[in-house]
Specification:
mainly beta, Lipocalin, 10-stranded antiparallel barrel, 6-stranded antiparallel β-sheet, 19 strands, about 0% helix
Amino acid sequence: WTLPADAAVGPRGKPAVAPGFGSQITIWHDGNTFTVTRVFSAGGVAVTHSLDGVETRSRTPGRLCEGDSQSVWTAAWQDNAVVTTLIGAIPPGATAPTKMDVKATFRAPAADTLTVELTFRTTGSAEPRVVSTTYKKIGPAAAQPVAAVTAATPATLSQIEWLSGTWIGTTGTSAFEERWTPPGGGSMLAVARSLRNGVMNSFEFICIVQRNGGLVYTAMPNGRQPATDFTLTRIEPKSVTFENPAHDFPKMVRYTLGDDGTLEAVVSGTEKQKPQVFRFRKQ
């Protein structure tokens, strides 16, 4: 389903659509299951609803260095229309949902026409606001994609809170440091740098976020974009390992907290590539 050529244009010169919906959506309806994929410039977001009123949850990946957010939904048939209701939102790092009440009514007045009516309240408004968008059918939905099931290593940021703080190491005339924030809002942020004879020769922005029930380590050496993600593969009380087999170097990043309070960071690649080992003391 896509916006027609004569769709209304908003004040910024872009098509006017209901908040949270893009210019194109795809719908799969199979028995009691109703899946809506909203297509945006950054990609698609699919939400699968159960039409028996049972609560379901969807997960939306966060932006760079932001953890996942979740939405809590109910859905049901009402007067020959499907009505989905967003009843709760869970921001990154939170566990309890914030109460919401946003209804989307999907109705097909004709075989090639779909209206999506969004009902929601805005801050300071006593009456709900209703925004309706009309889409035209451009073809049958493709086969519903089956997401590749990659079991995440379950973990939370609280398990690696020991990584927070300022860590500094030295070798000869070189010094290297990593400064990690405590967990908050579903992420930990860090800045790292290395100096030789007091001159900075490299730096790095790093973050660890909660993603899909596990943790993802994101590295931006010298601020490079796009960032590189490493997925959690192993976690122990005082050790955490992230890997990205497709990356050239490193393919693995591991932090280990020693019994003496020192921190060891190891980055490694293939068997033919020499691992790099950094040892820090907390300041």
